[in-house]
Amino acid sequence: MTRFHFAKRLVLVIELGLLLAGVMESGRAQITITTKDMFSKEGQYYKMYSNFVKHSSSEDEAGEEVDVSDYIGEDGEDQVWDFREGPDDEEIRFDYVKPSEIDTDVEFEGATIVERATFKSTDAQKSLFLDMKKGVGRFVYGFHDPVVYEAKPSVVFGNRLLDFPAVIKYEDEWDSTTSFEIEVESLGLVVPTKLVYESSMRVDAHGIVMLPEQGFHDCLRINELVKYDQFVKIPGLGDDWMNAGAAYVRNYYWLAKDMGIVAQITSTQDTAPIPDDFTAATAMWRQFENNHGKSSDVVEPVEGLEVTLDPKGNRVLLSWKKAENAIAYMVQYTDNLSVNNWKDLKETSGNFALDSISSKKQRFYRIVSLE
């Protein structure tokens, strides 16, 4: 089976990487990561140390696995992960640029920004096509990577992938899936290949992360299990997709305020699910520089409030667009605007609410964004 790994920051075929470590200082408050803490604006960048040299070019270099037994640490609250020391065989710069700056032969419809990774050792580049949807999260539309197949380096996903939600906090869980088709050269043949990608992510720890040249920061750790179902069309054997088996990879991500992904560790690949406490990693990444700057933690008001009456005339449906930095919403009402007497109807993390009320009655509503 051809080996494929998909990174949240950067899609890299063959194998990919991330970070980890830890013990702990007690009493640290957990944090919440929002879209404003990630990188999504033109001109932003960050840099990583990594052992990911062999994937920066099409050359089949040896590349050694990394022992991460001293980095992954424990799950739970109040952990400490020390990434000040680690592999630095490669430096990778991630720049955020307009989609028009990437020379592709296909259109990544919906993408508004590109994360372009440049490997210092070879100047090789790989690009991930993104859109940061306000109040929803980060969508991935596909990637451009000559290492995948130099003749067709641009790969568009069958459906956009929501990899990081707009608000991420301790004990959150989410799943995502997509598929994409590529061509793989094997034994002198070009083999059409389809990969069905399934990701299950959970925020299993929070604490302090120590970084090279950047001190220490509050962080969340995300534990991700990825499954790849692979299908191929063998030249000369028809046009039907043939199941070539499944592969699993486990990733750990560390996310910090105003710094996005500050570390990542990726396991080796196997045909069975990778255990949480794996020790051998194909790659490890450690952030050592960025120009993100401090973002606002102010919770923005909601927009697009709509009030819809039930045809039966005894209920009202309220719906709105989710707001930046809001973790939840308080739905309030009053029957008299001349009196400051707002009453709570419902607190929700969603973007809708029902109120049982006769159509003959007058009522006013407002939605309050909560931190």
SSE topology sketch:
Elements: E1 5-6, E2 11-12, E3 32-34, E4 45-50, E5 66-67, E6 76-82, E7 90-97, E8 113-119, E9 125-133, E10 137-144, E11 154-165, E12 167-169, E13 173-186, E14 189-211, E15 215-232, E16 242-256, E17 260-267, E18 280-290, E19 303-309, E20 315-321, E21 328-334, E22 343-348, E23 352-356, E24 364-370
Parallel strand pairs: 6-14
Antiparallel strand pairs: 1-2, 3-12, 4-7, 4-18, 5-18, 7-8, 8-9, 9-10, 10-11, 13-14, 14-15, 15-16, 16-17, 17-18, 19-20, 20-23, 21-22, 21-24
Q: What would you note in describing this structure?
A:
By secondary structure, this protein is mainly β. The model is unreliable at 1-28 and 56-62 (pLDDT under 50). Strand 9 and strand 10 (137-144) form a beta hairpin. Strands 4, 5, 6, 7, 8, 9, 10, 11, 13, 14, 15, 16, 17 and 18 form a 14-stranded mixed beta sheet that branches. Strands 19-20-23 form a three-stranded antiparallel beta sheet, with no helix packed on it. It has strands spanning 5-6, 11-12, 32-34, 45-50, 66-67, 76-82, 90-97, 113-119, 125-133, 137-144, 154-165, 167-169, 173-186, 189-211, 215-232, 242-256, 260-267, 280-290, 303-309, 315-321, 328-334, 343-348, 352-356, 364-370. It contains no helices and 24 strands. The chain is globular, with a radius of gyration of 23 Å.
